[in-house]
Design brief:
mainly alpha; 3 helices; 0% strand
């Protein structure tokens, strides 16, 4: 029950996060960036979102709900 309520609260925050991400990508004029870089930009530019864990959860939720708009890829470095 608590988990379902938390998920609903996170879903309610997604439109604002979507807008933030859109502005970040527009301002950087790049179609791709790392998850860490995106999280850093969100936290630095929006100090009301200081919980890195929450931002990460919301990004994963966006990937789940709108996979055509935002996706994550694994990268292997040698």
């Amino acid at each position: 029950m608590i988990e379902a309520k938390r998920r609903q609260q996170m879903i309610a925050c997604l439109p604002k996060l979507f807008g933030m991400i859109h502005l970040i990508f527009e301002s950087m004029k790049r179609p791709v960036m790392t998850e860490q870089e995106l999280m850093y930009k969100i936290i630095v530019n929006h100090p009301d979102r200081v919980d890195k864990g929450e931002v990460g959860e919301q990004l994963k939720l966006l990937q789940e709900l709108v996979p055509d708009w935002i996706s994550g890829k694994n990268v292997i470095q040698w």
